[in-house]
Amino acid sequence: MRFFLDSANVAEIREAWEGGLIAGVTTNPSLVAGEGKDFHGLLKVIAGIVDGPISAEVLATTAESMIVEARVLARISPNIVVKLPVTAEGLKAARTLATENPQVATNVTLVFTPMQALLAARAGADYVSPFVGRLDDIGQDGLKLVDDICRIFALHDLSCRVIAASIRHPVHALKAALLGAHFATVPFAVLRQLLKHPLTDAGVERFLADWNKSGLPR
Ligand code: E4P
Questions:
Q1: What are the pLDDT digits (tens) for 112-160?
Q2: From residue 47, how far is each of 42, 128, 182, 187 by CA, in Å?
Q3: 133: Cβ below 6 Å to ligand 1?
Q4: Percent of the chain beyond pLDDT 90?
Q5: Ligand 1 atom 8: the closest Cα is on which residue?
Q6: Angle at the Cα of 15 (from 12 to 17), degrees rounded to 5?
Q7: Residue 6 CB–ligand 1 contact under 6 Å
Q8: Is-contact 109 132, C-beta < 8 A?
Q9: Is 83 a catalytic residue?
């Protein structure tokens, strides 16, 4: 499993990318709205930092207008992945892009059932994003969804990649990795939690203190 940063914040993206922690970025309209910046301009800045997939979601609701928007987004940078909702119109757009513009990668998002994921993969999506945390929020098992999708894709030899999304804490990420998700997209705070351990910090301090006490040169 590789990590994407689930963020539209340039400072966070730069820190995570330069720190070697992520393979790419996912954004969504809520995250972009939270930054209050021009969407396409922001994507250009992110593409100047990140040399990996950058998911950017369409706002259109009909297949025809999603395809127009997808082509515009894809022209911003070759590593833009167009995010489409798992609606009838979204899958129609995914199918058209897969056949007419196969160089435009797609990430079908807002996936809440294994059959939505299978339909998206069959429509030609390159990635599907099952939302773990939002299912947990309504008393369902979000990680079971990731498990089901990974097993179905393996059983039927589908090349579509699974991005465990709506990750709320380190255990979500750990379990997604154990279940075989190809990617987990995580908020910056969770990425930090994944790296930090108090015994690591204490160990670094103790090694340095012992060395300094010894009088050995550095
Ligand atoms: C990523 O693709 C999703 O948009 C994101 O993970 C949703 O997370 P949330 O449920 O915390 O908003």
A1: 999 999 999 999 999 999 999 999 999 999 999 999 999 999 999 999 9
A2: 9, 21, 22, 18
A3: yes
A4: 100
A5: 166
A6: 105
A7: yes
A8: no
A9: yes
Output the pTM of the full model: 0.97
Contact 141, 131 (CB under 8 A): no
Determine the distance separating the centroid of ligand 1 and the alpha carbon of 192, expressed in angstroms. 17
Q: Which of 9, 11, 54 is nearest to 33 (CA)?
A: 9
Residue linked to tokens 């991005």: 163
Tell which atom from ligand 1 comes closest to the C-alpha of 165.
6
Beta strand pairing call for 183-186 and 80-85: unpaired
Question: Confidence band (pLDDT; 50, 70, 90) for 184?
Answer: very high
The whole-angstrom separation of Cα 111 and Cα 189 is 23
pLDDT, one tens digit per residue, over 73-108 is: 999 999 999 999 999 999 999 999 999 999 999 999
Q: What share of the chain is helix, strand, coil (3-state, %, to 5)?
A: 55, 20, 30
What does the DSSP 8-state code read for residue 93?
H
Residue 60 DSSP one-character state: -
What's the CA gap between 66 and 83, in Å, rounded?
10
Which two three-digit tokens encode residue 193? 């939690």
